């Protein structure tokens, strides 16, 4: 199922250490695309170029403070997960809460890093997340799954399921989508894969695959979507290295 990806990953690994400035250039481009698309999926109206300008510290007229903070916060969250990878930290609820705290910092400080105490629905989805009093239990089960059954999975499948399970629980009032995509890439990066970008133009396909996974237990569409993006990311690195 992952033979082609494994071959590309092996080829990329064989070329390590990778050229410093080429990697720096690719990384900056991927992180810009990741920040722009992840926020655009959630309704942020800043363009790719405007996102780049905000990341450089410039304010865009006519855009809300929230939209600016969503860009700045996402950059800080990426830097945080890079530190997690570098320090080889174990996956934990504390880590997830820290990522979410960065995502919502200055936007909703009361709920940043705190599990929801109200019921929520996922707009346009058939799946209904668990009631708030079940969130803590579901998150504990999630971490237990990660430390046991998930260990046996291919890293790409494990990353996809981390996203599926987390967003199905929807543990926070807001910011679950951005956090889930950060967690997905955290898992990929921990295993030596480049981060991927789920593009805003694929939003409907992405949401449909997620809802299918949550309502039928069939994860294949979502895994295939992630596999396609991993292939693209690996191809990008191999093209320039």
UniProtKB/TrEMBL annotation:
Pfam families: Fic. Gene3D superfamilies: Fido-like domain (1.10.3290.10). Residues 91-228 form the Fido domain. Coiled coil: none annotated. InterPro entries: Fido (IPR003812), Fido-like_dom_sf (IPR036597), Fido_containing (IPR040198). PANTHER family: FIDO DOMAIN-CONTAINING PROTEIN, FIDO DOMAIN-CONTAINING PROTEIN DDB_G0283145. This is Fic family protein. The lineage of its organism: Bacteria, Bacillati, Bacillota, Clostridia, Eubacteriales.
């Amino acid at each position: 199922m992952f033979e082609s990806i494994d071959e590309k990953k092996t080829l990329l690994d064989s070329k390590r250490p990778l050229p410093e400035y080429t990697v720096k250039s690719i990384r900056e481009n991927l992180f810009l695309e990741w920040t722009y698309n992840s926020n655009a999926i959630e309704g942020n109206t800043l363009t790719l170029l405007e996102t780049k300008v905000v990341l450089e510290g410039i304010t865009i007229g006519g855009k809300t403070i929230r939209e600016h903070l969503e860009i700045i916060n996402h950059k800080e969250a990426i830097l945080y997960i890079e530190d997690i990878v570098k320090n080889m930290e174990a996956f934990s609820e504390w880590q997830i809460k820290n990522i979410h705290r960065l995502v919502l910092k200055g936007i909703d400080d009361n709920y940043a890093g705190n599990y929801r105490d109200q019921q929520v629905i996922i707009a346009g989805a058939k799946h209904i997340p668990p009631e708030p009093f079940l969130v803590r239990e579901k998150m504990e089960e999630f971490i237990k799954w990660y430390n046991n059954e998930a260990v046996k999975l291919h890293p790409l499948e494990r990353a996809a399921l981390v996203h599926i399970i987390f967003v199905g629980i929807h543990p926070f009032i807001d910011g679950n989508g951005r956090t889930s995509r950060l967690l997905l890439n955290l898992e990929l990066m921990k295993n030596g894969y480049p981060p991927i970008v789920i593009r805003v133009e694929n939003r409907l396909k992405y949401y449909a695959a997620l809802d299918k996974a949550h309502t039928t237990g069939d994860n294949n569409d979502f895994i295939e979507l992630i596999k396609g993006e991993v292939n693209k990311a690996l191809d990008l690195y191999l093209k320039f290295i």
